[in-house]
Amino acid sequence: MGRYRPPQPASSKYITPEGKQRLAEEVDNLWKKRRPEVTKALAAAAAEGDRSENAEYIYRKKELREIDARVRYLRKRLDGIVVVDRAPDDQHKVYFGAWVRLEDGTGKQSVFRIVGPDEFDPSLGYISMDSPMGRALIGKSLDDEFTLRLPEGEAEYVITEVSYEKIES
Fold first, then answer.
1. How far apart are CA 20 and CA 14, in angstroms?
2. CA angle centred on 105, ends 167 and 140, rounded to 5°
3. pLDDT given at position 59
4. pLDDT more than 70, % of the chain
5. How confident is the model at residue 51, as a pLDDT?
6. pLDDT digits 0-9 by tens, 17-50
7. pTM, to two decimals
8. Cα gap 24→73, rounded to integer Å
9. What's the helix, strand, coil split of the chain in %, to 5?
10. Where exactly does CATH 3.10.50.30 map onto the chain?
């Protein structure tokens, strides 16, 4: 008997205009550029003869399935997302799309942007609104303090800046 894994909870459907453009470009690249390349390589591998022991053929079939699965996922995701292209009325609170500067208990400062789950990127400081930090920040205001449970213990933070324009680190 297999292990039962409950389905993942549905992620938030919000995205920035830049994030939607990146997803659309990924679909376009996969469908119009990458898939034809893999299909051509697959046809060449299939022409070599016995497919049961042809590693190149097996690899290309797997690669084609992965591309098709990603394209299906992205198209379905793009159909159901909501593009948030304007700042909220109350720009002193943290909502989707906000840039936030935090200071932890040791005085170290960090800058994050609250984005959708499809566009988070720690290297850019983008965190998902569905992440523990994102959920803790939503609805908070300037100078609010909050505690976040981390693997190494609890950490306290204070919000020192909220902006809907990019904050420089």
1. 10
2. 55
3. 93
4. 99
5. 79
6. 999 999 999 999 999 999 999 999 999 988 887 7
7. 0.80
8. 12
9. 40, 25, 40
10. 99-163
Strand partners, 65: none
Per-residue model confidence (pLDDT) at position 1:
54
- The CATH class for the domain spanning 99-163 reads alpha beta
Nearest to 140 by CA among 169, 87, 98: 98
Q: Which residues neighbour 64 within 8 Å (Cβ) at sequence distance 6 or greater?
A: 35, 38, 39, 42
Closest C-alpha to 134, from 120, 145, 123, 154: 120
- The pLDDT, as a whole number, for residue 97 is 92
Tokens encoding 127: 């965190």
Helix 55-80 to helix 35-46 angle (10° resolution) is 160
Q: Which residues make up the CATH 1.10.287.180 domain(s) of the chain?
A: 14-83
Distance (Å, whole) CA 22 – CA 124: 14
